[in-house]
Design a protein that fits this description.
With 218 residues, the protein is mostly helical. It has one domain. It contains seven helices and no strands. Helix 1 (3-31) runs antiparallel to helix 2, helix 4 (94-119) packs antiparallel against helix 5 and helix 6 (151-178) runs antiparallel to helix 7.
């Protein structure tokens, strides 16, 4: 077997395995208690698997020339990483700020390209606009926190919840898209891309509201 094919196969296996493990560990934390050492341990494992899956996915996308999957990989890695930052750190460090600016560029690109597709009559452009819009909303929050450091502790809990849920949504979306052929006769392709976001975003909103209310009642 050619060495490049062998290496490519290894990356594919790592990508798929880490993606499945991220999906399972993410689901475990979503349905289980949101407190305690188990939640933190499973959460750390989830982040590691998400970053592994995202980075190998970016590598595969780059080698195949698929820029859209490349930026989706960046988006996924950003969600998982910053979700971890808001839980485990006291503020943004220089590497974190660099990640925010990279995501800003990717978000602007996705949104602009998606609008261009929609204007050209391509419905799938909606997927680009949704992911780009979410990216820019996250970046806006991060920039506010970076410029007003006292905000970090105030928004950390909600940002952790929303971004970890977002990373799980990304993992589930990837799973559905990879198996898109199973649903092709029932739903349009762009709907599969957006279905996990529609289904699980309300959970993130609910958990975030509970967190805020609990803090307020203390």
């Amino acid at each position: 077997m050619d060495a490049s094919i062998f290496l490519h196969s290894i990356v594919v296996v790592i990508h798929a395995l880490s993606g499945v493990l991220a999906l399972l560990s993410g689901l475990l934390n979503m349905v289980g208690s949101k407190k305690g050492k188990r939640h933190r341990a499973v959460g750390s494992f989830f982040v590691f698997m998400m970053l592994t899956s995202a980075l190998t996915g970016i590598l595969l996308a780059l080698t195949s020339g698929n820029w859209f999957l490349t930026v989706v990989g960046v988006f996924t890695a950003f969600m998982a990483y910053t979700g971890w930052v808001y839980q485990r750190k006291n503020n943004f460090t220089i590497p974190d700020v660099v990640a925010v600016f990279i995501m800003a560029g990717v978000g602007i690109f996705m949104t602009g390209y998606g609008i261009g597709l929609l204007l050209g009559g391509v419905v799938f452009g909606l997927v680009h606009v949704v992911f780009g819009g979410i990216s820019l909303a996250l970046v806006r929050t991060d920039l506010l926190v970076i410029t007003k450091r006292k905000l970090f502790s105030q928004v950390a809990g909600v940002q952790h919840i929303s971004r970890m849920t977002g990373a799980f949504i990304a993992a589930l979306t990837a799973f559905l898209v990879v198996n898109e052929s199973l649903f092709a006769n029932y739903v349009p392709g762009f709907f599969i891309w957006l279905l996990p976001t529609v289904l699980f975003t309300p959970f993130a909103v609910y958990w975030s509201r509970n967190l805020v209310q609990n803090k307020f009642n203390k």
